[in-house]
Design brief:
By secondary structure, the protein is mainly α. It is about 45% helix and about 0% strand.
Length: about 120
């Protein structure tokens, strides 16, 4: 006699799975950190970048003025090399002035010539 195999219960055919819809594209690009919301204009003007560059240059010049001071003879101490006016007074003043100019460059507002430019921002 032939062996009978047990019959499996018949399962109903499953409908095909629905694919997830494709992600929708945004109509506008997300506003950048450097742009005003809803506007493609940069926050900083050319003049702001000039101020910030000049301030950075002052800071770097102050750091350069502060550098140096190595003793030519390790057995002889020369305090005027390290404690000179340039290193103790002038260089820190140049650096602080550079930081102030950079901060002024950041906070300086754009010169608006047309009143309607500002009105568009508040609508």
């Amino acid at each position: 006699m032939a062996k009978q195999q047990p019959q499996r219960p018949q399962q109903a055919p499953q409908p095909p799975k629905k694919a997830a819809p494709a992600p929708a594209r945004r109509a506008e690009k997300k506003d950048s950190f450097f742009n005003r919301p809803g506007n493609r204009e940069l926050i900083f003007d050319k003049q702001n970048f000039i101020y910030m560059g000049a301030g950075l240059l002052l800071v770097l010049l102050g750091l350069a003025a502060m550098s140096g001071g190595a003793m030519p003879d390790p057995n002889k101490w020369e305090p005027e090399r390290i404690y000179s006016f340039r290193r103790i007074t002038l260089a820190p003043i140049m650096m602080i002035a550079g930081f102030v100019v950079v901060i002024l460059g950041i906070f300086k507002k754009k010169a608006t010539t047309d009143v309607t430019d500002n009105a568009e921002l508040y609508q």
